[in-house]
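Notes to self after the Tuesday call (sharing in case useful).
The group wants a holo model before anyone commits to mutagenesis around the pocket. I volunteered. Ligand is zinc ion. Logging inputs and output together so the record is complete.
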Amino acid sequence: MTDQSALRDEGSTRAWRELRAEVLEDAGHRCAYCGDPATHVDHRTPRSAGGTDSRRNLAASCARCNLGKGTGSRSRLKRGLRAALRP
Ligand SMILES: [Zn+2]
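Result:
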């Protein structure tokens, strides 16, 4: 089990928060998958599959699409972390 990259990457670093805000703004706060209001930013290609944090690999996403992709333990981990980060 190597969950450390998810812990690091989903953390609330300043750079990530800024990038995330930019992606949401660019997308007009619309989910790239279903068009609902977006509050999350999703990695189109997961880092575990070689994806990066570059803007091109990021997509605005609603909570349902971002957390409901069925990636098993990874999405469960993400859900827990996001809940923890919520104000
Ligand atoms: Zn959606």
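Two things stood out.
The pocket of zinc ion is lined by residues 31, 33-34, 36, 61-62, 64-65 (CB under 6 Å).
The chain has four helices and two strands.
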